[in-house]
Design a protein that fits this description.
The protein has a four-stranded mixed beta sheet with strand order 2-1-4-3, covered by helices on one side. The chain is globular and about 35 Å long. The longest helix is centred in the middle third of the chain and has 8 residues. By secondary structure, the protein is mainly beta. The protein contains one helix and four strands.
């Protein structure tokens, strides 16, 4: 049988401050994953998730804190 591209799940990786963080649960929304990491990275509180970028077979979601953002 032929595999459809939708059958090939990309690994989600969450990037914050230059660090790649593992996906704690593929069923969580990216915003829920960010909330999960707030205890390790308090600066994520009130942050945002940047739309993902594909790098090879990985889907990279970047977390950005609101600290230091202008405008």
């Amino acid at each position: 049988p032929t595999r459809r591209s939708s059958d090939l799940a990309l690994e989600r990786v969450f990037r914050f401050s230059g660090r790649d963080l593992p996906d704690p649960n593929p069923n969580m929304l990216p915003s829920e994953v960010m909330d999960h990491y707030v205890s390790d990275f308090p600066q994520l509180l009130g942050g945002k998730v940047v739309p993902p970028v594909q790098e090879g077979d990985r889907l990279i979601y970047e977390f950005r804190s609101n600290f230091g953002d202008k405008g």
